[in-house]
Structure formats: structure tokens, C-alpha cells
Structure prediction request, 199 residues.
Amino acid sequence: MASENSSSSRTTTLATTLAHSSTTPHVFSTPIQFKLDEKNFLTWEQQVQATITGLELSEFLEGSTAPPQYFSQEDQVSNIINPRFLQYRRQDSLIVAWLLSSMTPTLLTKMVGLTTSAQIWKKLKIYYATQSRAKIKKLKRQLKTPKRDRSVVVYVLDVKRVTDALAAIGAPISEEYHIEAILDLLTLVTLPGHNGLHK
Prediction:
């Protein structure tokens, strides 16, 4: 009898909890304007962050602790699932679908096996951070070791191209460094025996 009363009381409590947590999950009807590929993560990330923050859903990408699936061991045995957990999982699944729908096939293959938006977000951040570090090193090396036998105009344009590329991947160089790179190149092309100084 006591067990029945306890179960009835628990069901009533869960019903009350569900009534107070019946916020309708947000359905993303507007897709991100462009597909995520190997080169546009920063602009893609900016749009995702703005949308998620505006909808107050940042906790999902940050991997904040989800509500427990069961309130107690008794609920687990009876398979009485916490309504807040169901609500959280439903919203997270909608975010996952929205993120995946905005990726190119190449990126989608890297997301296989990931089930939450936090897992996807962490994977993307690590992947693009690794890619960016390698690219930054390569671009900065180009500033230090330019191709020879080219005109001054082409050298200056090369410096601009490299600095723009660095800015595009979130690693802009200072104006002072930019000027220093140009001066270094001008020094190089005016060295005796160098025939790259052309107009």
C-alpha cells in the first residue's frame, strides 16, 4: 500500500514537473546561408554562434550537464523518465540536425558516431584549430621565403595575399609586421645579383 502511494505521489510530481517544463523546443526553420567546408569555418561559426546565442541555447554547444534521465533508481527500474531530460534531448537533437544539414559531404563523414551538439561542436573546434595551425605556419613561411625572380609589384601583392589569408583564418598580423615583411622583400630583391627588381 505504501509502495502504491509512493508511486502515485511520484507520478503526480513528474506530471507537475512536466507541466512546468513544457517549453516547446525551437525548430530551426532557417538554414545557415552556406555549407561548412574546409575554408569557411570562421564565418560559419559566427553565424551559428549568433543564432544559438540569440535563442539562448548556448548551454547545448558548451556541453553543460544535461538533466538526469531518471530522478532515482526506483524511476529507472520503472522506466519513469525525467520530463526535463526528454525536453533537453529533443532540443539537442534539433540542433544536431540543423548543424549537420549545413555541412558539405566531406565534413559530414567526420561527424559519424557523434550524437550530441556538444560532441559535434568540440570535434569541429579541434579539427579546424589543427588545420589552422598548420596553415598559419605555411603562410608565415611564405612571407619569410618568397619565390625569387619576381617583380616588386608581384612581391607586394604576394605579401597582401598572404596577410589576407592569415586574417581569414583568424590569425591577422600587425600592421608593423606587414610593413616589415614588405621591407624585407624589397631588401631581398635589391640585393646584388638578384634580377627580380622589375616594375
